[in-house]
Amino acid sequence: MIDLSFEKIKELSKEYGDSFYVLDSDVFKDNCEKLLDSFKQYYEKTNLAYSYKTNYIPKLVKIINDNGGFAEVVSGMELCIAERTGVRPKMIFWNGPVKSKKEAERFLISGGTINVDSYSEFLTVCEIAKKHKNDIINIGVRCNYDIGDGVISRFGLDVEKDEFNKIFEMILSIDNIELKSLQAHFANRNYKYWNEKAKGMISVYDKIVATYGLRPSFLDLGGGISGDMPDSLREQLKLDRFSFDDYAGRAATVFSEYFRDKKDIPWLIIEPGTAVAANCMRYVCKVETIKDIRGKIIITTNGSQKNISMSGINPPMQVVGCEGEKLNCEKADIAGYTCIESDYLYKNYCGKIGVGDYLVFGSCGSYSVVMKPPFIFPNVPVIDISSGKTELIKRAEKYEDIFTTYNF
Ligand SMILES: Cc1ncc(COP(=O)(O)O)c(C=O)c1O
After folding, report:
1. pLDDT one-digit tens code per residue, 256-281
2. Buried (b) or exposed (e) across 184-212, using 16+ Cβ within 10 A?
3. Among 106, 297, 306, 318, which one has the highest count of C-beta atoms within 10 angstroms of its own C-beta?
4. How far is the centre of ligand 1, averaged over its atoms, from the C-alpha of 222 (Å)?
5. How many Å lie between the centroid of ligand 1 and the Cα of residue 52?
6. Residues 127, 185: one domain?
7. Domain range holding 74?
8. Ligand 1 atom closest to Cα of 273?
């Protein structure tokens, strides 16, 4: 990753303004390769389906596609990004609890796979299949089982319920529906649950093969993987040291043991988002004012907590100083430009800081650009600095971009 010195930030800010994201797409690519390799060492037939919602910057999406990975989308909007990037429908899994029937129909008849999240959604897919008798309709079923983390997930169908079994009975009775995948997503990113995630999936697969003779080609364990992070973040999140291998070792070995000596083995799919996107982006903003309110130092910036999405914790932050007057702070709070009282990027900062200094926040690649509202300021640009090249990935939004959907 390029060093963001004061001179470098100044140079970038001349062209892009005083607040922007710096992406390193090489880091993203490297993360994807490392994650895939760690699963492949136990179960060779593994592939990634990148979670678009985490960070759908077209350049990242393209890296996945160019390297043979799948797209994991949850809306027509994300599907549109995949299509505009040139991803073929057969490389797209559509999850998500709500899908528009019209978009689902178009997607299914083009050869994409929909993982149904409810029984009623399955019935909608059946209607589409009946309407398009000459097309093969690829579906998957989102499975919900207990992984022992104390959470009742809202996603997928309870694998113990009759409706779940009914889906497979009906698939057998409809000629042009093909069961492509079983999928499960549990949000808990603790690697300790990955053994139960895999075991639960294998147990469902075993039952579907034995009872219905259906053999889905993809067994998808969803997201819920954390990537490399600085110690300061790990300690605040109360996580011990771990690597991709801690997830892979727990999950992919369950697959390799079960499928040893079996023929027609399925693909193991994982849907990383945070694992590969979080540490590939930094966010830069500038100190605008410093004031003392009844003994509390408040440092206000032209950035916002909404830009970095992390809340309740102090993100990795570096103060990149200009030469000028500095205040030596004890427990100062670094605030955002919005008028939200709780908009703080960092709490209890101790050290020197001055107006005009830049702040560089690390690990900002997941659920940041995709979640930032156009609240008070339009959104800032994204610049990719990787392999010695600088490329504008997203230009700064203008007022007109925001107002364009309103009637004046
Ligand atoms: C279905 C699905 N897959 C993958 C992901 C990505 O998971 P993570 O944020 O843990 O990387 C999510 C996140 O919400 C998800 O809902």
Report:
1. 999 999 999 999 999 999 999 999 99
2. bbbebbebebbbbbbbbbbebbeebeeee
3. 306
4. 6
5. 9
6. yes
7. 25-278
8. 11
